[in-house]
Amino acid sequence: MISGLKKIWNFADLEKSNLNVSVVFEFIYAIFNMLQIVAIYIVLNSIFSDNKNMKVSLIVLILLTLSIIGRSYFNSLAQLKQVHAGYFMVANKRVEIGKLLKTVPMGYFNRNNTAYITGITTSVLDDIENTAPFILVGVLSGLINSIVFTLMIFVFEFKLGCIVFIGTLLYLCAVSYMEKKSKASSAARQKSQSELVQRTLEYIQGLFVIKAFNLEGIRDKEIISSITKNEKVNLDMEESLTPYIIIQDIIIAFFSVIMIATSLQLFFKGSMNISDGIMGIIMSFLAFNHIKSTGSVLATLRLATSSIEEVEKTMSMPKIDIDGKNIDPEKCDIEFNEVSFSYEDKKILKNISCKIKENTMTAIVGLSGSGKTTMCNLISRFWDVDKGSIKIGGIDIRKYKLESLMELISTVFQDVYLFEDTIENNIKFGKQNASHEEVVEAAKKARCHEFIEALPEGYNTIIGEGGASLSGGEKQRISIARAMLKDADIIIFDEATANIDPENEDKLKEAIESLTKNKTVIMIAHRLKTIRNADQILVLKDGEIVERGNHEELIKNNGLYSDLINAKAKAESWKLNN
Ligand SMILES: Nc1ncnc2c1ncn2[C@@H]1O[C@H](COP(=O)(O)OP(=O)(O)OP(=O)(O)O)[C@@H](O)[C@H]1O
């Protein structure tokens, strides 16, 4: 129990002060609550004594009014602090996770799919927000208040105090046992909850494929099975805890009855007057209220701590930018030194060594799956090399702070991702503080100004998530405009032939030329024209550079390159002839 509370406390981080204040408010609330008992005691004393006057009624009235006002005021303040703490402790973690995600190797996402991380940042953190602060404050204030109340009863009547003390201890033992028992079921609940989020997200993201291949029935079954499993885990958890809840209720009922019996016995023996006797009976109904509320929140402690453990596990993701420095290299040439790389156990690149001179264009060609994209991704440190090194300006890229490395590189991906935002803001990703004029200029150079202007809201048109409302070619030109605006020294370009319509091909070629002028360019090239213009061509086969040189040299070699070019030329003439 204590370790669980400590976990919440540490997780609260900057919100600890709000939790502290909330505990104090809960304590003051309890004091105002006790005023009611004092008022009842005064009434009883007055009824059973000869001192019956209006002054007593007035005091009781004032006490009860104070109690009502004080309780509602401090209760709302305490709740407000807890809601504030819950919201901000989770919001801060979401921002922290967002920052961390930028520093993890992309391989992390292979092992922990995005749906799992989405589950953590949404439903798991929501669980923490809605339970953790209330549990911590509930338990602490409940314990403090029941200690104070028990002390008060000790002062009132020692024997009754002993009964409350023993009853409270036994009750806490039962709660603590139940809390331990719920460990396994909390973890299972956590797992099935994440699984449900994963399946739901997968279903939504793959809706196109599901519809196209008529897979509704099969995928529906998977979601329904996750829902059923989740329901069963929740029910099992409730069922396994029910006997302990019954035992706790029995303990409280039993000790309340003992308090009533003891009060009556003390009265009949003459050790208590009638008003104290009645007060003892009334207190038997109230004595365990605080500890009971503590117990009910403690039952959910495991749920909150297993959610926190899950978030902590996600936050301990491997980072690749631990001690990087801000570096502005004198030159932007790139060098691969005996680089090897595997995705998990699958070896992709083997001893790659090459030099890419500043302000030259290097085309990487090779069969599908030969490792072209992987080679480019290693330059941006989406993954780290397993062996060897990559240098920019003679400095190992692992020595750069990720941000300063990213400032040097613009990447135009084959699969362009656009955010659900205006076209202008999507282009501005390249340079956050760019003016509208700069955005338009970049769009003009990237040959996308005309189609943007033709949209109903022009540059303020909101694009659907992932760029859903644009064609592949339009998305790619927007991403070229982005790169144009960023104006980085190194351009990595994954050429997407499929997305270029013939009418725009020449325009796009001009756009690419103006983007890559006086830059160090690495291009995964598919089109003959691009390859022909390259200063250097690297031919990849099964993760190894098997040929290198310019177009003429490689054609003369009569190796894989000339085979690829011949096949391409055939395909292109086939396309033209048909
Ligand atoms: N994230 C990943 N996790 C595991 N394996 C991957 C991952 N990305 C790519 N691969 C595998 O690595 C190999 C090389 O992929 P890569 O994308 O680098 O090839 P490519 O030459 O660019 O292919 P293409 O021309 O089809 O785009 C492929 O076999 C691919 O299946």
Q: Give the biggest sheet.
A: 6 strands, mixed
Oligomer: single chain
Radius of gyration: 35 Å
Our count of helices gives 21
Mean pLDDT: 84
- Work out the helicity level: 55-70%
Unreliably modeled segments: 574-578
CATH superfamily of the largest domain: ABC transporter type 1, transmembrane domain
Alpha carbon gap, first and last residue: 75 Å
Overall morphology: elongated
Which molecules are bound in this entry? adenosine-5'-triphosphate
Task: Please characterize this protein's 3D structure.
- The protein is of the alpha/beta class and 578 residues long.
- The chain folds into two domains: 2-315, ABC transporter transmembrane region fold (Up-down Bundle); 343-577, 3-Layer(aba) Sandwich (Rossmann fold), CATH 3.40.50.300.
- Helix content is 66%, strand content 11%.
- It is built from 21 helices and ten strands.
- It has helices at 2-12, 16-47, 54-101, 107-111, 114-156, 158-205, 207-212, 216-268, 274-286, 289-298, 301-315, 372-379, 402-408, 423-428, 436-445, 449-453, 472-486, 502-516, 528-533, 551-557, 560-577; strands at residues 334-343, 346-356, 361-366, 387-392, 395-396, 409-412, 490-494, 520-524, 536-541, 544-549.
- Strands 6-7-8-3-9-10 form a six-stranded mixed β-sheet, with helices on both faces.
- Strand 7 (490-494), helix 18 and strand 8 (520-524) form a beta-alpha-beta unit.
- Helix 1 crosses helix 5 and helix 5 (114-156) runs antiparallel to helix 6.
- The radius of gyration is 35 Å and the shape is elongated.
- The relative contact order is 0.08.
- Residues 574-578 have low confidence and may be disordered.
- Bound molecules: adenosine-5'-triphosphate.
- The site of adenosine-5'-triphosphate has 12 residues, from strand 2 and helix 12.
- InterPro entries: AAA+_ATPase (IPR003593), ABC1_TM_dom (IPR011527), ABC1_TM_sf (IPR036640), ABC_transporter-like_ATP-bd (IPR003439), ABC_transporter-like_CS (IPR017871), P-loop_NTPase (IPR027417), Type_1_exporter (IPR039421).
- It is a multi-pass membrane protein.
